[in-house]
Structure formats: C-alpha cells, structure tokens
Known about the structure:
By secondary structure, the first copy, chain A, is of the alpha/beta class.
Amino acid sequence: MIKKFIICIDLGGTNLKVALLDLNYRIKDREILSTRSFMEKDDLILGIVHSVTRFIKYNNLSKAQILGVGLGLPGPTDAQRGIVHFFPNIPGWKEVALRDILKNKLGLKVCLDNDAKLMALAEHKLGAAKGYRNVLCMTLGTGIGGGVILNNKLYRGFNNAAGEIGHLPINEKAGAPCNCGSFGCLEAYVGNKRIIQEAKRVFKRAVTLEELSRLALKHNRLAIDIWRKTGKHLGFALAGVVNLLNLDVIVIGGGVAGAGNVLFESIKQSLIRQAMGVQAKHVRLFKAKLGNEAGLIGAAIMVKEGL
Amino acid sequence: MIKKFIICIDLGGTNLKVALLDLNYRIKDREILSTRSFMEKDDLILGIVHSVTRFIKYNNLSKAQILGVGLGLPGPTDAQRGIVHFFPNIPGWKEVALRDILKNKLGLKVCLDNDAKLMALAEHKLGAAKGYRNVLCMTLGTGIGGGVILNNKLYRGFNNAAGEIGHLPINEKAGAPCNCGSFGCLEAYVGNKRIIQEAKRVFKRAVTLEELSRLALKHNRLAIDIWRKTGKHLGFALAGVVNLLNLDVIVIGGGVAGAGNVLFESIKQSLIRQAMGVQAKHVRLFKAKLGNEAGLIGAAIMVKEGL
C-alpha cells in the first residue's frame, strides 16, 4: 500500500502557511509565505496552486499519494459548498467558489472551512480538549474566533456561522463600538487593538502584547491590571456561554492567550463569580495546546475524516 | 392490539397539572390541582400517585395500557438518573430520586425532565418550531427557562443544565442583581417581577402583566414603552445566542409573551440591530404555539421517544 499524505493551507491576514502532513497528523514539511506578497485574489490562488505542486514534487510524491488538500480560511465560509463569503482582512474576496477553482487546477480533492472551526477540531481531537464532549475553543487576536464542539461533533449552525463568541454582547448600556458594526460585543473589549490601545494610554507609549505579557510576568502592576481587566471581560461573557451550553471545557488560544496565568486566573475568577453553580463547578478552562499548528492539523482532520 | 396511553404531569409553583394523552399526543383527560395544597414533599409525591391511579381507574384502563408516566419539573434535574436537584419555588426538595420513588409506588415506567426542556421538545415536534433544525425555546415568567434543540436533538450539556438563557449576562457595568445570586443577567431585566415593578413605578399603582398587555393594545404610551424596553433587553441577549449558535428559530412562550406584537416587534428590531448580518438575516422569531400544554405534550414525547 502506498503511503498517503494531506496538504494543508492555513491562510491568515499576514502569513500563508502550507504543510505536508501524514495520516497521523504529523507535519513532514512546511513553508510560510507572506500573504501580502500576493497583490490580487488570483495571485493568491495561483500561489496556493504552485505551493501545493512544489510540495508534491520536492517530496517525491505522486498525486495518488495525496488524500486531499485542506484549507483553513480567515473568514466566513460555506464549508459544504466550498465557498468563501469574504475575508475581513484580505480585500478582493467575495463569494468565491475556492474549492472548485482549486479542485480544477490541482486535480485533487479539496476541503475548506473557517480557521477557528478547524482549530476547534484539532484541539478536540489531539489538543487541550481531547476526551471532552462539549467544548468551546476561542482564539484571541485582532478578531476573536470561536468553534463549538457539542456531543463530540463540530456544531456549525445553519450558515456554518456558529461560534461567533467575539460578538456576544456584554454591555447594553454605553457598549463600546465593535468591528462588526454593532456595539458592546466582547471583541470590542478584549481584541488586540483594544488591549494595545489601553496599554498605550496607561504606559504613555506604544507597548506590544508580548511586552505587556513580559511586564506582567515581572510583576508590573499596570500590566497586571490590564490583563486582569481583560480576563474579567472574558469571564463575564464566558459565564453566559457556560450557563447556556453547560460546557465541559473552554480552550483559549491565540496571541493574547500568551499572557498566561495572570490572564487565565482572572478569567476563571470572573467566570466562577458570574456563572450558575452547577455549570461553573463543572467547566474547565485550558490553554490551547497546538499553538500555530492547530489550523493545519484541523484542516488535515477535516480532509481525513470528511467533516 | 390494546390502545396505549401516556400519563403526564406538569408541576409548577402554583399548579400541578395531570393529563392522559394518547400516542398522538392528544389530551384525553386532565385535572389541575393546587401545588400549595400539598404541604410537604411526601404529600406532593402521594398526590401524584393518587392522581395517576385515579386517571387509570376512571378511564377504565389497565396498567398494561400505560406506556409510562412523564413528569415536567420546575427546576434542575438529572434526567438520566431521574433525580430532582432542587426546585427554586417549592421548598423541601433536594436531591430527590423521584423517578425511582414513583416507579416503585406506581409499578410503571417513569421519566422526568426540566419543564423548559420538555417545552422545547414539544414546540419542536408539534409547535412553532416544527421542521426547524436549530432552535432556542424560552419561557418568560417569574423565572426564564430555556431549552435548546441543535441538529434536531435536545441539547442537554454535561449536567443536563444547558439552556439557561435567563442567566446570560447583558450588563457588566452596574448590572442589576439577579435571583441566581449573580448580577446583570437577562432575567434581572425581563423577569415578571421586574416588569411589574417597573409598571408600578411608572403608573404609580399595582398593574398586572395582563393589564399591562391590555393597556399596550389600547395604545397606552407608558405600557408600550415598558414592553419596548423589555423587548430591547431580550433582543440584545438573543443576538449573542444567535451569533454563537446561528439558530434557525427562537420560540418565545410564557406569560410575558402574551404582550404580543408590541413585544415581539421590539425584540426583532433589537436582535437585528445587534446580531451579525448572516445570523440575523436567517433567524426567525415565533410565539410559542402549544401554550400551557407544551409541558404535558413534551413529557409525553419524552416517554414515547425515550429522550
């Protein structure tokens, strides 16, 4: 029997990651390209095609050895019909039938889905939420992504748009304006931009998220306070989700999660204070385990298991 | 073949309803007792036993014709093990193995679950949400109950405690205190007591919910404003649920839903303003169809379908 592989693509606003994985989801080869080096939609599609072709060639593989190509995408998609609705951070994409375009150009099976959903698949199968039945996975970055696993299956909702935990509103009165056009959403309080803004206000100079995490580790009160406030907002919103879904586990990943204990402890406190007894007692809060590879691994799971 | 029936009990803080249903969920006989006439837990259990026995006798049935007894209960339960955790509005119940107690006394199959979950089952199978896949059912009363149907199945969560939409927090800053011991929850803004309080403040006299609905129907501005505010809170909270679960339908029942159009229009407006485009466009808002019978019908569905 010939050995089979999966080629996965994790497209972000900054990087385009491509990787070759075996059927045990181990990464055998990878490359990282700059998303911005592709000026137009068609360039980006061609970039993906060339990258996949190179991977097959330089790893001495035949097309028959490729089980499929899986794509994790930074925006709302119709996974069933293989369509990209749009990308909030990459211009020029609107209702693109990306799956069929790539299938025709590559002659391979192609699957695609939203990256937060693939992260949830990966963390549930192989990461922090392995063995748990009802899970919310969230990534904290410029935007806040989410994926929900219920009864051990990825829950999609009608338009494959479930999981938008960033747009759970938490402040009816004088809610901060959010990127989604609405106001008072969680993302408006804990998105990267808001945290960096707050740090700039407090420190009176530009501070990156990484520096803010380092400062907190060194017991800087101002930095600790910013992370505590962030955790408080998160715990408040998550309490609602926990009351509604009686979850087993919440997994948090993404750049902001790098703040570590100070953030996680604050989320926990706020969540326990706000949620109902039974639900709060049961739920566990974990840091994501698969890091930057979650999207690639989730895409491979989607291809192999046909989810 | 002998004709089979199901006996269902809907226990509320005020009434204990008992009914005989056929396997098409039609109610053939019923009685309503006063919950408060039973002073103690054991009296109430005995009252249920006597009522079930009477129903069998006076309808000339044999025990072999009773498929089972289904109970809808006003508090958190462990449906799988048949245990009542407690009732917020009926004192004296704590971790009661009600299913086994009744099974032993009656010699019949007994199933029990939380009443909001049974309402969701009933509205999904036979009521307003018939034919829809992903549904939130909520009852607006003194407390706010909820049941979630996802992918056509009742979603329970780990402790059978999912669906607590009343305890979705909506105001981080200066949130109103809630019965659950926390603050800022939806229930603290739209529970019966709060609405009646607000009406008393505005009208400077006691006003019932029914009168408030009538006044709004007669275009009383003050009454209309109270319902509009109530709807605004509800829409804001529901937007979060719709963003998270990309639902097909929200069904609203219970006493407060009696306010009708003025309330529903306000919920819709607020929901559409707050929720994300794709999710808001898809979701429908319906008034519950089965009214006071939803609990009994849901209990019969549970017995027949073994949910």
